[in-house]
Specification:
mainly alpha
């Protein structure tokens, strides 16, 4: 019996719903049809936010919750991507319209090799920093619908430019900050894209999953990210495009369950660019959760507010300084301090960059924090869905809220409390996983227990848990 027939029969023994899932992955219309739908949705969201803006700061705070496009993007779509990545892996990348755009434009492009700045990861890290520091905290792309639409257009432009100039999937692999973020969180996932038997791959001569001569195909083309399925060991880089699954004539590629956080059982690569990305993420997640409670928000912003006053920084650039302090300077200072303590205790020598290999151990905790923020962000916006559908632009609804003619219903207040309560065990799971993984990293490196990094992890988690408790109590 051939391996392909054996594998097909093993799939037929699975529950019917799972069999249907494999049939969908094998279809020549998937994920293409889903990408087309996503592209249409992407365009509609741009149109929904275009031209909707205000110079009234108080009105803007409500407009972000009443404009339909803005609510969909920041309160439901992006949180859903984070939640899906933390549990399932990079499933959003599977249906992302940017991958479709990249595949189309690259067929008529120059197919140049990306410069080392992009290939080493510094390009995506720089763009991620720019989105948070300049986009979010300077020009409020998360609050002003028109700015959100401009941001989405910029992403489309970057994807188009990268696809025309560089080789296949350059945008997804080297430019897109969302994909890079989802790739980090995919380490936590309970699903993985792997081969069923590595010996089948080793015995395969044609290797259609990586054969460049098949690049022109729409269905069953080789991996556009230039990954070899037979050597996949973690979830970070694979976009789950399913093309290798369609190309494999041995039926040896599958989507399967595994234990949570399985990627961390092995040492994971941490380049300087990835380290910088995780440091920024460390600060961003902390800020996002801590600012959910007015008391903790006031404490967190005390230092950057003082620096803004001393420097006389005008609006909106005061937000830039705040973001640089909280997302860049503060995380780096904390990890340098932890590295100094840990390296001196372990070897008696001061090694400032000692923390870099340990950064992967913080991913479960950061994923849990980001997931908690997703709950806290999406839940309060549920009450705005009916009014946003009735008034998609959201201007009139925002004015009504500002005038005091709208109030929070009791059911929404109860749901808000429930979101905070549900987030607590999520944080505890992330904390426990990070503590265990940091210990494994130390053992892999032949070092003593990472007490300084454990202390930083516990302090980080306790701060976020205190915020959740404070929200429930207030």
């Amino acid at each position: 019996m051939t391996n392909a027939l054996q594998n097909r029969r093993s799939e037929q023994a699975l529950p019917k719903t799972v069999q249907n899932g494999f049939s969908l992955l094998r279809s020549r219309w998937f994920p293409l049809s889903a990408q087309v739908v996503a592209f249409i949705g992407f365009a509609l969201l741009i149109l929904g936010g275009w031209g909707v803006e205000t110079s009234d700061a108080k009105l803007m705070l409500h407009l972000r919750n009443t404009n339909l496009a803005n609510v969909v993007v920041w309160s439901f779509w992006f949180p859903a991507m984070i939640a899906a990545a933390a549990v399932l892996g990079r499933v959003w990348c599977m249906v992302c319209p940017m991958e479709l755009l990249s595949n189309v434009l690259n067929r008529v492009g120059f197919k140049l090799r990306p410069p080392s700045f992009l290939r080493t990861g510094w390009g995506v890290t720089a763009l991620y920093a720019a989105v948070l520091v300049i986009g979010v905290h300077t020009f409020s792309i998360h609050r002003v619908p028109h700015h959100m639409a401009l941001y989405m257009l910029v992403l489309l432009g970057l994807a188009s430019l990268a696809s025309i100039i560089f080789e296949k999937r350059a945008f997804c692999s080297y430019v897109c900050p969302v994909g890079h973020l989802l790739g980090l969180y995919a380490h936590n996932a309970v699903l993985e894209w792997r081969v069923k038997a590595k010996e089948v791959c080793q015995g395969c001569r044609e290797k259609p999953c990586i054969a460049v001569k098949r690049d022109h195909l729409w269905h069953g083309r080789p991996c556009t990210s230039r990954l070899y399925p037979g050597k996949l060991t973690h979830n970070r880089d694979c976009l789950l495009c399913t093309q290798c699954y369609k190309a494999c004539d041995k039926d040896n590629v599958t989507f399967r369950f595994r234990r949570p956080f399985a990627d961390f059982l092995q040492p994971l690569p941490v380049t300087p660019a990835i380290a910088a990305f995780v440091l920024i993420l460390f600060g961003f997640v902390f800020y996002e959760v801590v600012t959910e409670w007015k008391t903790s928000k006031k404490l967190l912003l005390a230092l950057p507010d003082a620096l803004n006053r001393l420097s006389g920084m005008p609006t909106p650039w005061d937000g830039t300084l705040t973001a640089v302090v909280l997302f860049c300077a503060a995380p780096l200072a904390l990890f340098l301090l932890a590295a100094a303590v840990q390296s001196l205790a372990s070897s008696g020598r001061l090694r400032p960059m000692h923390f870099v290999p340990y950064l992967m151990g913080f991913i479960p905790l950061l994923g849990a924090g980001h997931l908690a923020k997703s709950f806290l962000k999406a839940t309060p916006r549920l009450q705005h869905i009916p009014s946003a559908l009735a008034d998609p632009k959201g201007i009139d609804t925002a004015k009504a809220i500002l005038a005091g003619s709208a109030s929070t219903p009791a059911w929404q207040a109860n749901l808000n409390t429930a979101a905070s309560v549900v987030s607590m065990p999520v944080m505890l799971v992330g904390l426990g996983a990070s503590l265990v993984i940091l210990g494994r990293i130390a053992r892999h490196r032949g070092e003593r227990w990472p007490a300084a990094y454990w202390a930083l992890t516990v302090a980080y988690a306790l701060c976020l848990l205190a915020v959740l408790v404070g929200k429930v109590a207030s």
